[in-house]
Specification:
The chain has 143 residues and is α/β, with parallel strands linked by helices. The protein has 2 domains: 68 residues, Signal recognition particle alu RNA binding heterodimer, srp9/1 (2-Layer Sandwich); 74 residues, 2,3-Dihydroxybiphenyl 1,2-Dioxygenase, domain 1 (Roll), CATH 3.10.180.10. It contains 3 helices and 8 strands. β3 and β4 form a beta hairpin. α1 runs antiparallel to α2. The longest helix has 12 residues.
Length: 143
């Protein structure tokens, strides 16, 4: 049974603020939202980062054990963009924490990392050269 799509689904403390941040930092466009009629929390939001690239999110529901990161997280979302320096700069200006400034990497990408205001980590990069897996290994071995 093949997998047809995979979507990051983020839980955040303030979904409305997250929508604003992701719109400013990553150019996200809100497709739709479902509002919990009992308490006004956002139960489901779909954001389009570019055609065919979706991000889903919701407010936290601690009573259902659905919470955002409470500290460092064991996963990161990797965005491939046209200009990582500009995207990282926008994200930091919007409240993200710079974890790793943009730099040219041995694997043929220029990239850096941020933590958004909601605790999620993002690796943001763009291609600078095509590098074969064998060449990547050779470069890594030499570091």
């Amino acid at each position: 049974m093949p997998v047809h799509e995979a979507f990051p689904y983020l839980r955040v403390r303030d979904a409305r603020a997250a929508i604003t941040f992701y719109s400013l930092a990553f150019g996200a466009t809100e497709k739709f939202r479902l509002v919990d009629p009992a308490n006004g929390r956002l139960g489901h939001v779909e954001l389009e980062l570019s055609p065919g690239v979706m991000l889903m999110l919701s407010d936290e529901y601690p009573e259902m054990n659905l919470v955002g990161p409470q500290g460092p997280t064991g996963m990161s979302i990797h965005l491939h963009v046209d200009n990582c320096d500009a995207v990282i700069e926008r994200a930091v200006a919007g409240g993200a924490t710079l974890l790793r400034p943009p730099a040219d990497q041995f694997y043929g990408e220029r990239g850096g990392s941020i933590r958004d205001p909601f605790g999620h980590e993002w690796m943001i990069g763009h291609s600078i050269e095509e590098v074969s897996p064998e060449e990547m290994q050779r470069r890594w071995d030499g570091m």
